[in-house]
Write a structure and sequence with these properties.
This protein is of the alpha+beta class and 384 residues long. The chain contains 15 helices and 13 strands. The chain folds into 2 domains: 200 residues, Gcn5-related N-acetyltransferase (GNAT) (Aminopeptidase, 3-Layer(aba) Sandwich); 166 residues, Gcn5-related N-acetyltransferase (GNAT) (Aminopeptidase). Strands 1, 2, 3, 4, 5, 6, 7, 8, 9, 10, 11, 12 and 13 form a 13-stranded mixed β-sheet that branches. It is globular and about 60 Å long.
Length: 384
Amino acid sequence: MINYIIYTSYKDFPESWSTLASHDIFLQPIYLKALEEASPATISLYYVGVFMIDELVGISIVQRVEVYAKDVFRSNNLSLIKELFKTGISKILKGNVLVVGNLTHTGQHGLYYNKEKVSQTIYLDTLLKAVLQIKTIIKQNSKKRIRIIMLKDFFIDDNIHLEHKLFKSLGLNKVFVQPNMIMEVKSEWLSFEDYYNSFNKKYKRRYKTARKKINKIKRKELGIDEVKENLKRMHTLYSNVSNNAKVNTFLLPENHFYILKSNLKERFKVFGYFLDNELIGFYTLIINNKSLETYFLGYDAEHQYNNQLYLNMLFDMAQYGIENNMNSIVYARTAMEIKSSVGAKKKDMIVYMKHTNGFANFLFKQIFNTMNPTQKWMERHPFK
């Protein structure tokens, strides 16, 4: 007999949750505890456990996201026509969204099931029944209506796409989103020097130029006390980058990086860039078994171009991954061209989503594609 339980805190998980989630830190209680403590103010967390009789056979994260126009569109440099368009779009998109997955991180880290114990169809059908119940709970408790339901992020070869009949029956649209940029660490890269030597002449020159432009900037890993000491500055630098994004759905709280460091300890890395003892940039990493997941970063725009700060960060991420024997470095979305210049390859991704208003759902795929346009970019090929 298949059934499910909805949880509102990691504290209520059965012990078997950790065992089932052992392959992915983003599903483990240690990470979810940190996320609960440092989640954006607009995100509430639910969890679904799927049981076959009394045995936990599947798990999922479900996030309720309150979307506001001021968060989605942060840039004020808009023409009148764009402003009117923004207003029209925001009327459809704003409100409460249920996301099966983790909106704060790129990739499929929202669901998992034991394939030996339950079929994909039964697991997903049960999970989606739980999602609809969460929708009802929110309506009853908060008097808020869920406007959008989304399942994120799936690679194009994921078996979930075999469930098109189930998704079609629920009105879920299949939508392509920006790719995930991932660099597989080659077995012959025994050191960072091996990685550098694999570049062709053009990209060796580019690497040397970037390193020279770092100039007097000092790079160092920050311990928990240093993260706490630089908390406000880190949030300012993060906001500099976040506010320049075309579309956003949340803003991290000021204590986010400190809470993650406190909980994940050595599995959460923070690296700072200092000029004259002032923090001018930082990036964060999450160690997910043998996969190095790049996380949020920030920098002072004044130093970004002159010092090629972002490109140097990408090289430093690669260096950490190679020197610590990672199998892959997940560079995530955005800035695809520059990420390809350090060796990352695009992995196309798909989400499934629906608007709970029938007419809006009819238009939704087109609206979402307008909000998430296909970006023209040139893939770089740095290796010999």
